[in-house]
Amino acid sequence: MSKIIIFGNQKGGVGKTTLTCLCANALSQAPFNYKVCVIDNDKQKSIAEARNFDLEDRTETTVPYTVLEFEIEELQQQIQALDKEYDLIFIDTAGKLDTQAAIENQEITKAIMYCDYLFLPFRAGNFNLDASLQYLKFLLEVQEVRSDSPRQLKILGFVNMYRVRSKVNDLLISEIKHLKEGGVSFMVNRLGNYTIFEDVDTLTSMYDEDTNHTGKLNFTVWLNEFIKLISNG
Question: Can you give the pTM of this predicted structure?
Fold first, then answer.
């Protein structure tokens, strides 16, 4: 049985797709060597297109992990078989919530119903925070719907694109403190706003325990916490 993971938020630009690739790249290769599958369920198909682009100039066909381009109906049909085949499955979903639809009828819910871990990236800024809080409320409702499921939905927030000495980031950390006091779980480590993360592809791991590169070191420390969370849950 695999661990099924989603980076979810309804706000664009908070790093959902980037983090999916960063984690899949690293965890499918040394020192982890998990058998990883990424399901691109987003209508933009960013990961599927990126994988095709990455392979254009390559003569070898070996890739570190599988990328599948699925609509929600295909996901529903294939997920049980994939759950038996892979160690880790990442689902890249659309973010937009339909506030007029019942929670069980929302397109995103249909994917999240299979998810074991949903990591919610928080990025500083009023619009980002409002959207993230609305999405968190939605996730807690989905979690309640799944309360009788043998596979519980675990929700973990984390800070992404963090910048030190920033007033908006200070406000974000203050808000997160209140959320933690209210029982919402958050990762300890924060991901910084490093240019190297913008250059991510679907092949190259940035995990390096011996690196002197600040961005790679930040990701390595963060991923060590990430893998402990999904391994111990």
Answer: 0.93
